[in-house]
Write a structure and sequence with these properties.
Pfam families: Glyco_trans_1_4. The protein has 430 residues and is α/β, with parallel strands linked by helices. It contains 14 helices and 14 strands. The chain has two domains: 239 residues, Glycogen Phosphorylase B (Rossmann fold, 3-Layer(aba) Sandwich); 173 residues, Rossmann fold (3-Layer(aba) Sandwich).
Length: 430
Amino acid sequence: MSWRGKVILVNTTDRGGGAERVGWLLLKGLEARGVDAWMAVGDKKTTDSRVIPFWGSPHFDYRPYAGVVDRARRRLTLAAERWLGLEGFAHPYSTLLLELTGQPPPDLVLGVNLHGGFFDLRALAPLSKQVPVVLRPGDSWLVTGHCACPGQCDRWLRGCGHCPDLEREPAIPRDATAFNWRRKQRIYAHSELHVIALSEWQLKRLNQSMLGPSIRSSRVIPNGVDPGIFHQGSRREARDALGLPHLRPIFLTVAHGGVSNRFKDWATLEAAVRRLSDANVGHEPLFVIVGGRKPRTEQWGSTEVRHVPYLDVPADLAAYYRAADLLVHATHEESFSNVVAEAISVGLPVVASRVAALPELVDHERTGLLVPPYRPDALAGAIEQLLADPRRRETFSAAAAKRARVSCGLDRMVDAYLDYFAQLVADRLR
């Protein structure tokens, strides 16, 4: 019989981009299996009764913490920490996490995403002494002095300091990265933590980091994709529904925030698109960028570029995948790519940077093409190859959809989490 205990997920919010969407799917998947599943968030956006904001749980008495002096002290502390370049941890309800959902308390805590200015990492040590605490980092923030995506910088391996890019998200105004790094190291040293990595690449990186000595157990569980939404379908029908032309080759990229997303390699991507030739890719190629703030159209060389705002409804995003001939994914670093997983689930061939975990998702020469990072010529060449070869794209499409059914299934992901939770709770009771 499947484990049906109580678990609380911790996430920045309950609706949004990749980590938020996966957290929501996991919450609902666990509920469907009879688990007493809850989510505590910094910013609640839905009306779901199982989602509890840290500052507004109906199961908790906030009066001892709601005095004018206490609130003013927290605001001043957070403001001062921010000014100094420190990562603000003045969030007192973090240590009270096990009380926010009433009785009985949770059997296990899952940290889906802990950065975003709502959670105190210092709570990990006392929480991990009471129940199993599982971290599922979607990026590298837990092991750096401030950034979520260090890219080619390896200072996180030896203590940060003298940060080359304080603007890298989440940005800080002054270089306190060495202090931030050491504080995280001290926190983890007093904690007993379990890790769910999204890829083998990410697990290796976590084991190399200052978090490594505190990892008591780990599993690799890639994110799942909802097959009821992201599945193969008619390209013609999708283009009709979206008002896209039938005869033009269309390639697509998806990024939360569009071209303002600093985790994507826009410099290489734009340079590659400007190199494309109509003679090599067919009649008037169209490049669609999904995820920006407002719709607009521009030209990158001879290629028309259409910017589509962020799509809050996953079915709308799936329609764009079906309408496209090709996904192009140029990035600096990713522990996993929900975008690539969604695309291959729809049967869309992928051209991606050969970095981080992407080779675990894209099977080179079978489901897409991997190219060296920061090489516009290589990226342009791969795009031209696939846009000019419909038969090859069809072969890649069939292989991509087949691979996704095996490796990106939502049920597989939820079952893997449930199996791990059952093991950790059983081990704690021994």
